[in-house]
Amino acid sequence: MRIIGAQLSPYLILSVSLILCLWNPTVLPADTDEAPPEILTNREIKAVRIEIPPKIDGKLDDVCWQKSAKTGELLQFEPQRGEPATQSTTIYLAYDANNLYVAFECFKTDMGNLAANLTRRDSFFFSDDHVEVLIDTFLDGRNCYAFALNPLGTQTDRRLINEGANRRTGQSRIGTAISWDCDWQGQAAIGTDSWTAEFAIPFAELRFSKGTDIATWGINFWRNDESPAEEQTWADLGDRQYAVSEFGQLTDLPIAGLVTKRPTKFKPYGTLRPQRLQPADGETSTALKPDAGLDIRYPIGDFTLDLTLNPDFAQIEADPDLVNLTDIPLRFPEKRPFFLEGNELFQMPLDLFYSRKVEALLGGGKVIGKFSKYNLAFVGAVAGPENPDQEIETGELPLANYNYSVFRLQREVGKTSSIGFLGVNKQRGATYDRAGGLDARIQLPAATSLNLEYAREWKAGGLDRAESTEDDLIFVQLSRRTNVFSLDAIYADIGEYFNPETGFVPRVDRRGMVIRSRYNKQYKGTLERLRGEVEYERLTNHAGELTNHRAGFSGLLGVKDFFFLLGPEWYNHIDDDDNQLYEDRTARFFVGWFPPKYVQIRNTGNFGLRNDKNIFFIRPEITIRPTAKLSFEFILQRLHEKHPDGTAWELSEWTRRFVVNYQFAQRMYARTSAEFTLEKERRVFALFAYEYRPESNLFIVYNDNRNVEGDTERIVFIKVSHLLKTDLF
Known about the structure:
- By secondary structure, the protein is mainly beta.
- Among the domains are: 36-254, Immunoglobulin-like (Sandwich); 266-293 and 666-729, no CATH class; 522-661, no CATH class.
- 3% of the residues lie in helices and 53% in strands.
- Strand 32 (630-642) and strand 33 (650-665) form a beta hairpin.
- The longest helix has 16 residues, at 8-23.
């Protein structure tokens, strides 16, 4: 175990400080005043009640829209911040006892360049025209719900916390914002000189304070107009897209007359799984396995209790095979419904709970909610053995289930600051892995924040642990995040034995700093985007040896629909597996073409010297959309390696991936993917999904998998789930 000795003092000071902040938040800066935040804006829209609701078909021909509140006059967020939008938009807002209704009328002189491609719910509208309504129901100036539609009526919903701290951050590390889902209606229609969109958002799906008769909510309206490359906003947000504290106001909303009661939801399901196993050198066997399970959601005021019994997630496609050219493991997004709701509350600078580490889930329960300024979440789960098919050798522990428990308490302080505690335990008998940590986010002037974390881990039991161990981490980050300029300065000290089995801590036994900076600007005209990034890293282990020393930069240029990136990097590092020092000299590149319709082409690559080998990696991708409902994707991934004294390239990895998507309707689609590797591995996945009524689904899945040994498995999976609602409880 690492002897922290002289290091104890700063750890103790930080942990005591965070405990004092959680108990008495007045020790934080002036930003943490307990008074409700004052929203400094002159944008306001009054709620107007209607008696006959609109038909949500995307067309604004209902009489109620003529009686609703109206606004418009959007401002450019990019590229000419604060200037009026070049195309006009009219926004309508109304409500009845059940729903908040919002409509957009988006005028466009060049309708032929309307960008509308994505048809799958919760798509990331990177290059589609779209509109979005964002609602801060607690008027806390930090958190909001977001609902978006593109011209095809594709729905996306998110829950953003701490002014977008949990938003999506990349393909291999997807934020938890988009994982939130609720039952709302949305549709769009395309006209001759404009496209229109309608939203119906149930009040029962939102959380908000019931303590006042007439409520004021924060609200903002957003439009992305792709052909002139304009992002437009109703409220003046400054230079931060998710500045909830700068939202406008929705006023005169009578809470007493709204239907806010949430019913208890029962969602039983049944599955049928014909399975065929064909070993490479054995007899073929077949099996038919029926199964059943149940999901329950029970509302308790502003809290929600979720229970799952014998869940089955076979309808979820496996993660794609990705080549990782870094010494940091890839972080894949959570896809399982049980873990999605409220997942953002477990986020910490270095996560002690990463739900993907809970494998083979057998059952679980969770409570998530908010009271006053406190966010609370608790998860308990039972999971099966992580490798149930492995053979037990003499002296090994027998296979058994693991019990998981996670507790999170977070207190909001002032406008956008927060402090919190998280504890997690993974246990099987006397073997356990426990971790607990305190974290704080302190908002400073000039869009700057200070992020702090102190955590400790305790391990005991297991044949691979000669003795019980405990160790800790400390994390300090000074961050300035705006859409144009960002700067991160990080100091971290991760103990030699600190590595929670339930968390995502990319490196162990490291101490040092990382500095990152980014400039990102959109322009109007031929040059559309200019971005530059610089990164410097210096880390040592706790023996004082330099283990990671990195310097790199990259530049991206966007010209019309073409994007080009080049990023050289110098990196000296000690490999943890062979304890050898490597001097890497590499460069990554990206070329992409993103026209409004029909096709997108991109190519990511890397070349240079890595781990004493010359490498050349390419990942070309092409997406073809002949119609709005049909798309084809082809991805080729190749990695070549050779030693410097080699005479020829040695092909080490080669993956081909084909994907076909067809959207029959908003809630009915089919998806097929096939992936092949050089080692003759094969993974074929086909899915037909139909949501025949809200939250009631039919899934038909086919899997055809072959591993490197030649063993083949073919499965047909049929799942039917049906939502039942009741107000009896």
